[in-house]
Amino acid sequence: MKKTKTILSVLLTAVILLTMFTAVPFSAGAVGDFTANYDVSTASDLTAAVSAINAADSGTYSITLKANISCAGGFSLTKNSITIFGENHSINFTSGVKSIQAWSGSTINLGADRLCQ
After folding, report:
1. CB atoms within 10 A of CB 97
2. Model pTM?
């Protein structure tokens, strides 16, 4: 009976470890997995990045905040997929529409501090 418990323990541990390691590649994605990366420090940079992403035919993009950004209004992603890496910075909407919207056919992911590098 003790031998059976030991074998089951080892098998369960192996299954848990395999599950953990196979899940890692499906997290936010490494920097190299993106069609393009945009580093933004100002509201203008952010607007330009979102406009470029919306204008692209397809792809998966990243936006990395390099400073705290204050925007007069929110923005919409009309297609494609973006991951926003905050890197300890924030986006503050000061007036108007105070949101980030994802339209049908688009995805917005909030990434951690480049944990996947």
Report:
1. 13
2. 0.66
